[in-house]
Amino acid sequence: MDEQAIATVAAWHDALNAGAVERLLALSAGDIEVGGPRGTGRGTDLLREWIGRAQIRLEPRRVFARDGTVVVEQAASWRAPDSGEQTPPQPAASVFRVRDGRVSSVIRHGNLPAALAAAGLDESDQVARPVP
Questions:
Q1: Among candidate residues 99, 92, 42, the one with its CA nearest the CA of residue 72
Q2: How far apart are CA 78 and CA 91, in angstroms?
Q3: Per-residue pLDDT reduced to its tens digit, 18-41
Q4: Sheet (strand 90-99) strand order
Q5: CATH: 3.10.450.50, 2.40.10.10, 2.40.30.170, 3.40.50.300. Which one for 2-128?
Q6: Under DSSP, is residue 56 helix (H, G, I), strand (E, B) or coil?
Q7: What ranges do the domains of the chain cover?
Q8: Comparing C-alpha atoms, which of 117, 97, 119, 115 is closest to residue 106?
């Protein structure tokens, strides 16, 4: 299960960073939960709006997984709302829940310890370290 979940989350990152919105939506459950510092909502319409507005890039660093839950430590950058310019990469970590081969939830946290705690995972659950 974890290998499938990790592969799904890796494909999700690839689609997001390539700007392949339709592929990203196909990898996401119709009722996907999307959350971060500004709150949480549901649905592919919200995901599509977030992608278009934020123009976020999430570069994976380390991966942790157990029982269909995947935490990815990331370097995150997005379009600044005031200037429209891409921000320099900042540390972040996201908790992904994968159900039936699709991402059913993605919640972004400000750092890895917060994401691991929210997911009920710890350093012993590290499974991969992507090559930069």
A1: 92
A2: 12
A3: 999 999 999 999 999 999 888 899
A4: 39-42, 28-36, 102-109, 90-99, 69-77, 57-66, 126-128
A5: 3.10.450.50
A6: coil
A7: 2-128
A8: 97
The torsion defined by the Cα of 113, 79, 42 and 31, in degrees rounded to 10, comes to -100
For 50, the token pair is: 């977030």
CA-only gyration radius of the chain, Å? 14
pTM reported for the whole predicted model: 0.91
Tallying the residues shown for the chain, one arrives at 132
Residue 123 amino acid letter = E
Residue 2 tokens, joined: 């974890």
- Residues 113-124 have pLDDT tens digits of 999 999 999 999
Residue 118 token pair: 């929210």
> Number of C-alpha atoms within 13 angstroms, CB side, residue 39?
3
